[in-house]
Write the structure tokens for this entry.
Amino acid sequence: MKKIFLLVALIATAFTQQLFAQDAKPTALAPLLASYFDIKNALVSSNSADAAAHAGEFLKTINGIDMKSLPETDMTTFMAYQDKLAFDARHISESKDIAHQREHFANFSANFFKLAKAIKLTDQRVYYDYCPMQKSYWLSADASIKNPYFGKQMLTCGKVTETLNK
Ligand SMILES: [Cu+2]
């Protein structure tokens, strides 16, 4: 009886490791998340020039994704958001007006979260934060609130509404 238990435990462990091994393979879309965080952090610092530059990088990355490298289900999801994300990224990249950038960032973030929910972009936690003053969301790699819509005017305004990879 003990031997069977051991065997079951062994198989379960091997199976779990297999699952994690599959999860560990990063998607070709992973650089988009890093780029998103760069834009977000620039807005937290109220640095419109940095936000524009990073949005330009995001745009380059999203337009350069090799579709064929994605599994079919990911490809379908990605295609549903590619144009929407590119639209807001382009507006952020072409603007020097932080208020205008933040306007686009709200829509950009809502779409980006839908993508991040449907396709695993990272093994790390991703927090989906909400700003009640702006009635808008953003993604963060950090549990602490740093508001990209107001920067230091209202840095800690907001709350975590959802956590990915908990
Ligand atoms: Cu615009």
About this structure: The first helix runs from residue 2 to 24. The chain has a mean pLDDT of 90. Residues 91, 100, 104 surround copper (II) ion (CB under 6 Å).
